[in-house]
Design brief:
The complex is a heterodimer of chains A (about 450) and B (about 350). Chain A contains 19 helices and three strands. Chain A is mostly helical and about 450 residues long. Chain A folds into two domains: about 70-205, no CATH class; about 225-450, MetI-like (MetI-like fold), CATH 1.10.3720. Chain A has a three-stranded antiparallel beta sheet. Chain B folds into two domains: about 1-110 and about 285-335, D-Maltodextrin-Binding Protein, domain 2 (3-Layer(aba) Sandwich); about 110-280, Periplasmic binding protein-like II (D-Maltodextrin-Binding Protein, domain 2), CATH 3.40.190.10. Chain B contains 16 helices and twelve strands. Chain B has helices at about 1-20, 35-50, 60-70, 90-95, 130-135, 155, 175-190, 195-200, 205-215, 230-240, 250-255, 270-275, 300-305, 310, 315-320, 330-335; strands spanning about 30, 55, 80-85, 105-120, 140, 145-150, 170, 220-225, 245, 260, 280-290, 325. Classes of the chains: A mainly alpha (about 450), B alpha/beta (about 350). Chain A: It holds the Pfam family DUF3333. Chain A: Its main location: membrane. Chain A: GO terms for molecular function: phosphate transmembrane transporter activity. Chain A: It is found in: Cell inner membrane; Cell membrane.
């Protein structure tokens, strides 16, 4: 029996009608409906994705944008020579003897006088002005005095940081209810802050030092900035770029163009793909064991961080480089070889330049991945580190202990004062800005230079 | 070839930088995350007021810090270990094996450990160490036998406590705080409830009794928190009936979210802890390698600055942050000034 003798399809007979292309029958309707449903699913999937993206971006911006503004107090401070330079020689070396603790009463007086001169009534006595100002305010004034010893005796107008509680009040984080049991600040301070805000001596300004400044200790969140950890991240990325790009590209060129196809190269290829999927914390343990415990490189140094991240980025770069080398058509190689070029000449003069945009894109995406990585840094001491010193030179940049941007964000998120929480969100905005810039550069490179055959 | 040149220069840079790794001019500190905020406050003020660079402070836990401290003497080891507990005999031995023989112990003050619940949750105003033992113990003696902890709610434990399920978030074993919790709360409670005596009658030896007293139930009513206090806070935020263990300083920064519980009828404040009325507190320490004094610039100045009245005194920034200042600070200052090591008498 063959199919030919099987009974003919009964469809036309069953309906009793002939099919027409102009009329939509039941089956076509079902097929069209299925397609419409599928499109709908697709749209729903995309909108859910977009919704989450918007939620994420929205909450980051909502929580973090306030970190870029900070409350400052404008106060004229009388630089009392008797207290700031008891010896009277105007010698900065001697004046160092007066510590920041010696400056604090001076600031309280200055704020109190300013309040009096504005005609604001407050039940608070002079020493109670301290909770309005940041602990860092005394440092600002002290470093000004040490740099300009000749201005002692003058009254100088300063822009001083307000304390984190006052700053939180203007940002809506601190309310009169929430400070009911707070021992650092009273409602009277908030009344005073309101009055000073109205008088124009206290208010929010753009805070550049959040981006450029150093990290601060736990009792002055208002002063903390990302600058130092940003430098740490920069030096790490430099190490990754310098090491991962040449090693990765050389490895891929050899594997793709020169290596014989045999079990050993197969084994290597499989392992490179496996490495790309290894969780990053594993590289951290490796870094701790090899670079710190065996090679005795300094702990918490961006050099070590960069080395660890290089290991993590290499597979990404190798895979993307090999893909872009593969995408160069064999005719290019054949033509080069055909006019007498050596294998190496054909690769370096013809194939590599054509594959370059793809390689660079892969590298930038690998770098962006490494920039946002925290887990491996945990083990080499770059997390839980207070980034308070700018490195003083290139070698120090690689070797002095430092943090990295994602590690700094993590560090802020776990501190006690809720004011650090806002800074953690702000830090995420800065980090995202870097990642987006890198990805945009990658896209531009691809659009501009990539060739299709 | 460009790539050859590039990789060669990269290797050269790595080699040069590795050899430049010697000579350190900043003090390096690691250890307890409880001491970290205090150490960073001092380090910051030290960097501002002295010519030396700001000391480098890392956290990682008391045990991890002391382990690194005991790795040896030299510029690539840390100078100071912060600890929220006293150094152990075993650690001193390890130190000695690695050549770290002269250690200066500096007590900086006291830290209160507070129990707090969500601000909107029920009030826990009648805690005694005995209640915590009854609520947390894995097994307790009953009629001459060890039985599994039968208590499900706080009211089962003590009728004065609210009738809510037991859900306690206690520090994990890697924290120094856990040790204080075990000794000052669980062990104390074990004794107060008479469980200890009962176990003795059952013929258990001393070590077994201690272990049994400090064993925490594993049925989900007691949760070990290995992270920081922020993690405990997040758990409390999610569970209105939960109660967590915090440091005094952390609680004081979050009074708008947390309601503190009394212990033995005393509310924890800087004053009650300093006077010893509030029972659950512990001393905080840092340990200095004497061999590094004079080698690492600023090390002794940092230690002296740390314990000076301006900083660690009752009106200094540390007390303001939540440290309970040490009434015997003067003796500590003298000890640091004379570089008196452990085992040496003044």
């Amino acid at each position: 029996m063959t199919d030919a003798t099987a009974p003919a399809p009964a469809a036309p007979a069953a309906g009793g009608k002939r099919r027409s292309l102009l009329e939509v029958d039941e089956r076509t309707r079902r097929r069209n409906a299925a397609e419409a449903r599928f499109r709908l699913y697709g749209i729903v999937a995309i909108s859910v994705g977009l919704l989450f993206l918007l939620l994420l971006l929205g909450s980051i911006l909502f929580n973090g944008l306030s970190a870029f503004q900070q409350t400052f107090v404008q106060v004229p401070v009388y630089l009392d020579p008797e207290r700031l330079d008891p010896e009277g020689n105007r010698d900065p070396e001697e004046m160092r003897g007066v510590t920041t603790f010696g400056y604090k009463p001076l600031l309280n007086e200055a704020v109190y006088e300013k309040v009096q001169s504005l005609g604001i009534e407050t039940p608070l006595p002079e020493p109670a002005m301290a909770p309005l100002l940041s602990d860092g305010a005394a440092t600002t004034v002290r470093s000004f005095v040490l740099e300009n010893p000749d201005r002692l005796g003058e009254t100088v107008e300063f822009d001083l940081l307000a304390s984190s509680r006052v700053d939180g009040y203007f940002k809506g984080r601190v309310t009169r209810d929430s400070i009911a049991r707070d021992r650092f600040i009273d409602a009277a301070h908030l009344d005073l802050a309101d009055a000073m805000n109205e008088a124009g001596t206290m208010g929010k300004q753009f805070n550049l030092s959040f981006i450029t400044g150093t990290d601060a200790s736990d009792n002055r969140p208002e002063q903390a900035g990302m600058g130092v950890s940003m430098i740490g991240s920069f030096f790490m990325m430099l190490v990754v770029l310098i090491l991962a790009l040449p090693i990765g590209v050389a490895a891929s060129i050899y594997l793709e163009e020169f290596a014989p196809q045999n079990r050993i190269t197969d084994f290597i290829e499989v392992n490179i793909s496996n490495l790309a999927a290894v969780p990053s914390i594993v590289f951290g343990i490796l870094g701790l064991a090899v670079f710190i415990q065996f090679m005795h490189l300094p702990q918490s140094a961006p050099l070590v961080g960069g080395l660890v991240l290089t290991l993590m980025t290499l597979p990404t770069i190798i895979i993307s480089t090999r893909a872009s080398l593969k995408a160069v058509p064999p005719s290019i190689r054949d033509a080069a070889l055909g006019v007498g070029a050596s294998k190496m000449q054909s690769v370096f003069h013809h194939v590599l330049p054509l594959a370059m945009p793809g390689i660079l894109t892969g590298t930038i995406i690998g770098l962006a991945q490494a920039l946002g990585e925290t887990a491996p840094l945990l083990l080499i001491g770059m997390v839980g580190f207070i980034a308070s010193n700018y490195p003083d030179g290139v070698a120090a940049g690689f070797l002095d202990p430092n943090s990295a941007m994602p590690a700094q964000i993590y560090e802020w998120a776990k501190r006690a004062d809720p004011a650090f929480y806002e800074r953690a969100w702000g830090g995420i905005i800065v980090l995202l800005a870097f990642l987006m810039t890198m990805n945009i550069i990658a896209i531009i490179l691809r659009r501009r230079f990539e060739r299709r055959w | 070839m460009t790539f050859v040149k590039l990789s060669a220069s990269a290797l050269a840079i790595a080699a040069v930088s590795a050899s430049a790794a010697a000579a350190r001019d900043n003090v390096q500190i690691a250890g307890s995350s409880t001491v970290l905020p205090y150490a960073s406050i001092v380090a910051e003020a030290f960097g501002e007021n002295f010519e030396y660079p700001t000391p480098v402070v890392e956290s990682g836990g008391s045990s991890a810090g002391l382990k690194r401290f005991c790795e040896g003497v030299g510029e690539n080891t840390i100078d100071i270990a912060n600890a929220s507990r006293a150094i152990r005999e075993g650690e001193i031995e390890t130190c000695a094996e690695n050549g770290v023989t002269d250690i200066i112990e500096v007590r900086i003050g006291y830290d209160g450990i507070v129990f707090a619940s969500q601000i909107d949750g029920p009030a826990f105003n009648a805690f005694e160490p005995a209640d915590w033992y009854r609520a947390m113990a894995a097994e307790m003696p009953m009629d001459g036998e060890m039985v599994e902890n039968p208590n499900d709610t706080w009211a089962d434990v003590n009728a004065d406590l609210p009738d809510v399920e037991i859900a306690a978030y206690i520090p994990g074993t890697k924290h120094g705080t856990r040790e204080v919790f075990e000794e000052k709360v669980l062990l104390q409670g074990c004794e107060d409830t008479g469980a200890m005596a009962a176990m003795e009658e059952m013929g258990m030896d001393e070590d077994a009794i201690e272990d049994a007293c400090m064993a925490v139930r594993a049925d989900g009513k007691a949760v070990d928190i290995d992270g920081d206090y922020t993690e405990t806070l997040a758990r409390i935020d999610a569970n209105p009936e939960g109660i967590g263990v915090f440091g005094l300083a952390f609680y004081e920064n979050n009074t708008d979210k947390l309601k503190v519980a009394t212990m033995g009828g005393v509310e924890p404040t800087v004053d009650t802890i300093a006077s010893g009325e509030y029972p659950v507190s512990r001393p905080l320490f840092f340990y200095i390698k004497k061999a590094h004094i004079g080698v690492i610039p600023g090390l002794k100045d940092y230690a002296q600055f740390f314990v000076s009245d301006e900083i660690a005194g009752p009106y200094g920034p540390l007390a303001q942050y939540g440290l309970v200042s040490d009434p015997e600070l003067g003796a500590t200052q003298e000890k640091v000034a004379n570089e008196v090591t452990m085992g040496e008498s003044m």
